[in-house]
Amino acid sequence: MEAWEKVYVSDAKFLTDVHNTANCIGCHGGVGGTDDKAKAHEGVVRDPTTDPGRVCGTCHADIVKTASTSLHYALNGYRTILQARGADLSNPAMAEAFQNHCTECHATCGQCHVSRPTFSDGGLIKGHQFKRVASISLTCLGCHGGRVGPEYQGKYEGVPGDVHWTKGGMPCLECHEVTQYHGDGTEYAHRYDGPAVPNCLDCHKDVEGGKDGVTQHAIHGQKVACQVCHSAGPYKTCYGCHVGKDAGGLPYRKTEPTQYEFKIGRNPLKSDERPWDYVLLRHVPVARDTFAYYGKDLLPAFDAVPTWKYATPHNIQRVTPQNRDCNACHGQKALFLTVDDVLPDELEANRSVIVEKVPPAR
To answer: How far is the C-alpha of 278 from the C-alpha of 275, rounded, in Å?
Structure first.
């Protein structure tokens, strides 16, 4: 979008909308009663919903009450993983790196209901119209359009999209409850903290324990995550990422070329809520020297966390290459994450997820 298009309030109906009751200054700040442009814009805030309690909370107090616990708002996922790798977020160098490269994923109420997310360069969705449920292509996929979106909508050549989209036309909200966006009052450490939500069994109840008569469901139900058998094929994984600032002081990131892989590994998050021995793994864009531009050894405990992480690809199909028969998976070393698949510098970090003995052919 052109710069002026991003802020142009084109819908005259907004002037009589309930969201304009407070008028521009009431939400964005500024000074009224002056013809001086500079003075009029003193104190103006681009996104007043950065503090949801001040604006949105006036009417939506019940939602705003839990907003601070939302992973989209608080970015706990980033903080958790960086601290697990030994990052000291109070270190000025690390704090600067976090501010430059992580906070653009922070989302406010307005960035979903009024504008596009900052991550996708902002801009009003429709002339400042407030959308209760905005287009997933402008909001959800504005941030999650690098991997999840193309997987779900079948945009990877040779890999079908998710049956929930291609056959059911289900938007994100059909599976992801609103509390996953707004928070539920619990400060989760990351997106896979707590119960498996959404859970395939919430809809496919007859699958549990093989009640549907499918032998594989009875055998694998508590041992293998649903995606292992029902992910339609290769999904995107990302390798080493490096961040810094260019000559003009603008933050940038540079990643190694992405690859399309399918890897079954040992479950790094095994618990009563995620009891499976085997899950799908995805390499994440991190390297030992990701933050080297800002300082030396800013991830001193890099090996404490795998670089191949628990994943839930969004390309589900009933019949897939690996579930056509038992030996389409059993004995197929190429499907499993083995020592040969892991970069030498990352072997120690991934010991817990590497499959040392591939299930034999039957």
So the answer is: 9
